[in-house]
């Protein structure tokens, strides 16, 4: 009898974390490595937010808090949803967790029974399927490639729904593609969901503030009020506020679901870090003027990366609407051999050879459910991005 739980056989470690770890190991060995794997802004947390945390420490706000968030933060979250999304929530409808990942996990653990299905558009964030599996559910993937702008259609959603479907996980702008759904496109999906009242929506809005050009962000419960009572809208301070390490995510939805999620959290981590919660209050209620220049900087980086990758042989890189990722197709590179003698049969082969031969770390597309491709995070300096893309161009030019 194995000592370890058989549940672990259903999941795998995070590939994005594995890539970042491997890159760090190579740097420690003296290799010149450019890491494009981590989804983490390279900006520092704004000073006003850091000062709020320091004040909280000095005021002794370092004790246990309510399991799913202090009242002040819940009120700030309600104000944010009202101000930015036109959604009215009360504090009892809000849950705060240790990052968006915990909030998503709590929701799935609180609702899934064996055999329940969760519709997940692909490409998808690597953790969605494994969290569903850990919770006893079954992921149902709906593929949308670059020809569809990485966005599923109402017809595809209709075909994926069965009597056992419990959730649709909706992520816009998307990790890994950066694809964003317009309000009209969300409305089309919502019309399908309105015909299937047993299906709930788990909307991951983590990249809400990172949208480019004239794209306007929208979220399902905002577009279709009829979905309000069966939507959990998830967000956090990690990306837009450069607070990844502070670990604060939040969600709003129906009270019975929020209470169930609180029960899960009470028996796992208990409350999120008290100091981080006070910092998040300042993030949501304090000055927001840094968001626009940060967004403009990300847009310049996007344009740089898209332009350079589209000059690489065998690579096609769509221009995304948001987030800080691109997801280039490498169909033209498959079946070739690198200068170093590596045979490229899969996108994992491509990413491995690219790291070994050029020192550029990317995440292979199979990790996100759609191949052949790879994900680049452009949340780093333009100097680093230019050098990394030049190395990718040289690598691709050397494939035979």
TrEMBL record:
It catalyses: L-aspartate + 2-oxoglutarate = oxaloacetate + L-glutamate. Keywords: Aminotransferase, Pyridoxal phosphate, Transferase. Signal peptide: none annotated. One of its GO terms (molecular function) is pyridoxal phosphate binding. It comes from the Bacteria. Its EC number is 2.6.1.-. Residues 32-392 form the Aminotransferase class I/classII large domain. GO terms for biological process: amino acid metabolic process. SUPFAM superfamilies: PLP-dependent transferases. InterPro entries: Aminotransferase_I/II_large (IPR004839), AspAT/PAT-like (IPR050596), NHTrfase_class1_PyrdxlP-BS (IPR004838), PyrdxlP-dep_Trfase (IPR015424), PyrdxlP-dep_Trfase_major (IPR015421), PyrdxlP-dep_Trfase_small (IPR015422). Its cofactor is pyridoxal 5'-phosphate. It is an enzyme of class 2 (transferase). The keyword Iron does not apply. The keyword Ribonucleoprotein does not apply. It holds the Pfam family Aminotran_1_2. Belongs to the class-I pyridoxal-phosphate-dependent aminotransferase family. Homodimer. This is Aminotransferase. It comes from Rubellimicrobium mesophilum DSM 19309. The lineage of its organism: Bacteria, Pseudomonadati, Pseudomonadota, Alphaproteobacteria, Rhodobacterales.
